[in-house]
Design brief:
Layout: H1 3-16, H2 22-34, H3 38-43, H4 51-65, H5 70-74, E1 76-79, E2 82-85, H6 98-110, E3 117-121, H7 127-135, E4 140-145, H8 148-160, E5 166-169, E6 182-183, E7 186-187, E8 190-195, H9 202-206, H10 228-236, E9 241-250, H11 256-265, E10 268-275, E11 281-288
Parallel strand pairs: 3-4, 3-8, 4-5, 8-9
Antiparallel strand pairs: 1-2, 6-7, 9-11, 10-11
Helix pairs in contact: 1-2, 1-4, 2-4, 6-7
This protein binds glutamine.
Glutamine (GLN) binds at residues 94, 196-200, 212, 220.
Amino acid sequence: MVISELYSRARKMLADGDIEDSVFDATCIMEDALGMTKAELVMRGADKVSEETAERVISQCEKRLTGYPLQYILGEWEFYGCGIKVGEGVLIPRADTETLVDCVLEHMKRKNITAPRIADLCSGSGCIAIALKKHIPDADITAVELSGKAIEYLVENARSNGTELRYIRGDVMNGGLFSHFMKDSEPLLLDCIVSNPPYLTASEMEGLQREVAFEPSEALDGGHDGLKFYRVIACLWRELLKDGGLMAFEIGEQQAADVTAIMEKSGFCDIRVIKDLGGNDRVVCGVRSAQAGEKRS
Ligand code: GLN
């Protein structure tokens, strides 16, 4: 078989199987299996492909037809210009989450903070922490993640992107993790806490898109109303923020008002809602304000 035949067969398989972006997906699978760019696939359309490669492409298309995510098939996905390795057990980085990275980078730029101390909670593949470290090389970033499988990806992604991160395996719902942020019994206060926590509601968890159902539910499930993590992080982790420090969350597009209210109640000011490129509310951020008479514990 030659490249052009295999390419049309892959496109047809995915289109017939009602895969939404069938041409895009077929192209990615071909590029990956043959180690060629799209232009090369077209230019070298008459070249022969080995039986092994053809079989690989066909079996990957078959897998894709079951709803298995393209990103897991490819094993790597781009986020904020960084190659992020992904596979079963770790959430696939979404383009929408780049809005969250932008928010943090802009804050640091505006405040002229060149060596911030940052915690990325529910870090998953590490994509946010890695993108931030790439753009703020002097940042001291700690990624916190509960899942052992995700931590494996996180460590590998930090390595392959040449970024030095600290990481903690643990549950952000548990204040016991604060011991990792202490030095000589004093808290090492943070300039920023950033998080894309699980935020889907119970009813959204029941109606997951076919592809998303292959992703780990613990990275998606935000409790009955989807807000469980915001309540705990805003209230508990606020303790570790410097006055003027930024807390920035990714949110589900219907959650801006609720998360804003949670942050107001937890004593944040300058709360802003930021839209993603699709025009949906995607980030809520606020600044820790020193409250009158407040004493740090
Ligand atoms: N944005 C993801 C989705 O819609 C959810 C990610 C999350 O819960 N943090 O599937």
